[in-house]
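TL;DR need structure tokens for one chain.
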Amino acid sequence: MSTDSLFPELVAYWLEDMEIEDRVTRTTRNLYERDMRTLVLPAFKDLTLREIGVAHCDYVLKQLAGCSYSRAKHARVVLLLALALAIRHEFLPRTPMNHVPRLHRKRTVPAAFTIGKV
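>> reply
TL;DR here they are.
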């Protein structure tokens, strides 16, 4: 693998590495794989590792957060894990995720019943 490898190749490598390391449970691996395939891969499937930048990561996560904070959070986790593996194995010099701002949940006012509404 190199910086010219496609992102799906890194994903396959990452999933295989998780299986070999056997540090997370089978359920967690399945959840990570589902999140990667449904949330992250559609946005990064045609990009090489070299093309993945801060702006694209930020844009994708903000789009997901617009629909669901939870989905964006899950996508952020699996994207961080896959890119961290690319750095550990020297496919990338650094991760663009270090410069993507944290996600913030929208504040909501809880809808509680009052005595008169019961």
